[in-house]
Specification:
Length: 307
């Protein structure tokens, strides 16, 4: 079984269409079809079946996709390991981060590493937890820094860094800032929130549902945390944001917290990476410095206003 055939199969399985896979790979459709038939001939079973205008994985195909992806990542890791050995401390660190940790923690870590080892290069991707875990599983990032999510303990190596709180916030002068608000009062206003696949959205939805209240009425759904305060400032919309983002000089400076214990989410900040026998030296160095810098950085909560 040739490695190239497995690589072609992974792209076909991911796109669900041989034509699109051929365009992506710069190969002809017959060549890709032939590569799949070679694998099927060797293992003695079908991997793909027609589905509409595309293809779908059989049960064996789903298993083969996981094996092909694992093999590709292993080859990529081996190549990087050889390069790291040749270059010593010089290397690349591919970091996936939530917006809050990217703004208040990563600058400290990256600037220190660049002082100590200027040959190390960083690739930083900012995103929501679901997108970042997918990137980690696909081998597109080495490590993810941000809030812990369900399944992290069983799926990854977890490094605990500190704690964070997520709170309801509104523009200064919002009607809820002029009275002692209850969680029921929050139902009267629209919200700016991330997608349902994001942990903070799931948590605030559950906070309402557990009290027999209707879920937040989402007027704007966005994964851009820096955009939320600007969307909310001229309106009566509410949002659910890290308390660290509120306060003078912060991304959420136009907002104030609507203080309610039942809508305050306490979450753990972690760094996670794949369970692997090999970790590039540059990534190991990043993790060590991250753990040193995280404690003081996460304890330094900025000044913020309560409604």
């Amino acid at each position: 079984m040739e490695l190239r055939d497995l690589q072609y199969f992974e792209v076909i399985a991911t796109t669900g269409h041989i034509g699109r896979a051929a365009e992506k790979l710069g190969r002809t459709q017959p060549a890709l079809s032939k590569s799949v038939r070679r694998i099927e001939s060797e293992i003695g079973t079908k991997l793909l079946v027609k589905s509409g205008r595309g293809v779908a994985l059989t049960t064996a195909g789903r298993v083969m996709l996981e094996r092909a992806r694992s093999l590709r990542m292993s080859v990529e890791q081996n190549l990087r390991e050889m390069a790291d050995i040749a270059k010593g401390a010089v290397g690349n660190v591919r970091v996936g981060s939530g917006a809050t940790t990217a703004e208040y923690l990563l600058p400290l870590v990256c600037s220190r590493i660049l002082r100590e080892a200027p040959g190390i290069k960083f690739e930083i991707s900012i995103g929501m937890n679901d997108v970042l875990r997918t990137a980690l599983n696909d081998g597109k990032v080495d490590i993810v820094v941000g809030p812990v999510t369900k399944g992290d303990e069983s799926n990854y190596t977890v490094h605990r860094l500190g704690e964070d709180s997520v709170v309801v916030a509104a523009a200064r002068g919002h009607p809820l800032t002029r009275k002692k608000a209850t969680i029921a009062d929050l139902q009267d206003y629209g919200w700016v929130l991330p997608a349902r696949s994001v942990v903070t959205r799931q948590w605030i939805d559950a906070a309402f549902a557990s009290r027999d209240l209707s879920e937040p009425d989402v007027a704007i759904q966005t994964n851009n945390i820096s955009l939320s305060p600007r969307l909310i400032a001229p309106t009566d919309l509410l949002t659910f944001i890290s308390r660290r983002n509120l306060g003078r000089g912060r991304v959420g400076e136009p907002l104030v917290e609507i203080s309610l214990p039942e809508t305050t989410m306490h979450r753990e900040v972690v760094a996670v990476h794949r369970n692997s026998s090999y970790m590039p030296p540059a990534v190991e160095r990043f993790i060590a410095i991250l753990k040193q810098e995280a404690g003081p950085a996460l304890e330094a909560i900025p000044e913020f206003e309560l409604s």
